[in-house]
Amino acid sequence: MNGLLRRYLVVLFRFLPFALAFLRDRRRFILFGSQRQVADEKHRQRAEQIRDTMLELGPAFIKVGQVLSTRPDIVPPVYADVFGTLQDEVPEDAGGDPKQVVAEELGDELNRSTLEPIAGGSLAYVYTAKYRNERIALKVRRPGLKPVIERDLRVVRGLIPLVSLFASERQQYSIENAADDFEDIILNELDFDREGAIMADIRENFVGDDRVVIPDVYEHLSSERVLAMEYLTGRKITDDDAFDDVDVTPHEMATRITKVYLEMGLVGGVFHADPHPGNLAVTDDGRLLLFDFGMSERLPATVQEDIIGLYRALVRRDVDDLVDALIALDVLEPHVNRAEVSRVLELVIENLEGRSEITWRMIITELTTMLRDFPFRIPPDVMLLIRVGTVGEGVCRQLDPEFDFLAVVRSFLVEQGLIESELDAIIEETWTDIRRSLPALARVPSRFDRTLYRLERGELVVRTEAVDGHRLGDHDLGYAVLAGALVVAAAILTFHDQPYELPVLAVAAGFLLVYLVRRRLS
Questions:
Q1: What is d(CA 102, CA 106) in angstroms, rounded to the nearest whole number?
Q2: According to DSSP H, which parts of 167-235 are helical?
Q3: φ/ψ (deg, to 5) at 227
Q4: How far apart are CA 122 and CA 141, in angstroms?
């Protein structure tokens, strides 16, 4: 039995109890029986057991859990919440000597006796080392890790067809591309050359900006397995003393985090996608320090525009534009039933408007919950954006429990000219309505003139039929019609210098009175 098959059976055996539990939720006795009602607390306990199993199975499954924590198209919210706690977990089994990796990659470039460990994660260790009279930071990939990750990803790919057998049609649309999504995200994190290039790009985008600092990369010391960078220190952003003796408040830092990440993604087009507290620090001079760019992404200009279009549609409550944006982002299939999706999105907007407080997480949860009846998926770039918003908002709320994340987002987009202000939006919407109405308005004077001409010549005929079998009589109804026509004429005559509308209104009142009296007598 080869290693891949053995691993496949081990993983299958570990997840088999959970598969049986999910099947029993549908049918009590798996093949027959009624559906079981499972309490949220039970689902949470089950999610925690799955999370612990992922931890025990190693780095690849830890990363799969992290990805699933931002895939509401695949897992329910309670499971996503629990899987999100995998972020700071580190497996106990270190496996191999990372100093050997440093020796293989750097040789005699630095003195390995000066290496000092400062952090460890599921994919890498972080050391400091002395290099040319200064201390630098080294991120070193775990020895022998890539073959293990690739093997486990093959196992995951082999399990997906089994999972699809038990998934609904809607979930199958999301699951069919899940293996590719997992591979793209996890293998990208293993490539330190890619991470270094992204760090350099983001650092370049913020040159001269005193709000944020990104460590410089030593490209000549870096490789696919080792990332050498400037060693910078700061206090963890959620520590009690993080803002002691610095000229910035927690609220100001929360605002800074939000705007910096928006600028990264929507202006620079490349962003750090892992803003949990362990990757954010406050320097001694009050700047925001970012660590660990392994989970990061580049956004094409078209995707940036689609994201802005999505937000603009939400602000304007424009359901048609919202559907267009979701299709453009590959969240919805192009041939989705637009009428049905529009009705669902109208309900989403109504539900959100009825709440006293709206958060990013609330919008995502409401949107994905209501779209569950349709085939939809979260592409990797959109998934990372959702992660940035969800995790980032959580950090900002830790700094300031009253922080309004969405208000800062809107303020930034208006400042950058990416969306219109409230007044501009109203003016543009009004002008759009006017432009659409101009053809009809242009024909009003001629039609009104023809109507008056026919009225003067006695050619205007009004045909009516009684609603029920009882007829009022044509003469009676004619008085009411004449009264209405004279009221319209009086309204037009108010623009004349002479008060011609007064006698016309008097005649109209006379016809109306005759109509009411005759109807009462009949």
A1: 6
A2: 169-175, 178-190, 192-205
A3: -120, 115
A4: 9
First to last CA, the chain: 100
Cβ–Cβ under 8 Å, residues 11 and 54: no
Please state, in angstroms and as integers, the Cα–Cα distance from residue 447 to each residue in 60, 453, 454, 460, following that order.
Answer: 73, 10, 11, 13
Helical residues (DSSP H) of 32-190, grouped into ranges? 40-57, 59-68, 77-83, 98-106, 145-166, 169-175, 178-190
pLDDT in tens, 45-85: 999 999 999 988 988 898 888 888 878 778 888 888 888 87
Read off the tokens for 390. Answer: 């969800």
Is the Cβ–Cβ distance between 212 and 288 less than 8 Å? yes
Looking at this protein, which amino acid is placed at residue 410? R
Contact 79, 48 (CB under 8 A): no
Tokens (6 digits) for 39: 């309490």
Q: Residue 261 carries which side chain, given as an amino acid letter?
A: Y
CA 280 to CA 263: how far, in whole Å?
17
Structure tokens given for 330: 């590959």
**φ, ψ of residue 428 in degrees (nearest 5):** -65, -40
Helix axes 178-190, 192-205, angle to 10 degrees: 80
Three-state SS at 217? strand
d(CA 443, CA 98): 81
**Tally of CA atoms within 13 A in the half-sphere of 366 that contains its CB:** 19
Classify the C-alpha dihedral 282-283-286-287 as positive or negative.
Answer: negative
pLDDT digits (tens, 9 = 90+) for 80-122: 888 887 754 444 444 568 888 999 999 888 888 899 998 877 7
Classify residue 409 by burial, with Cβ atoms within 10 Å: 0-12, 13-18, 19+. Answer: buried
Contact 169, 375 (CB under 8 A): yes
Beta bridge partners of 229: 137, 217
Angle, alpha carbons 481-486-489 (nearest 5°)? 130
Question: Counting beta carbons within 10 angstroms of the beta carbon of residue 423, is it exposed (0 to 12), middle (13 to 18) or buried (19 or more)?
Answer: exposed
- pTM (2 decimals)? 0.73
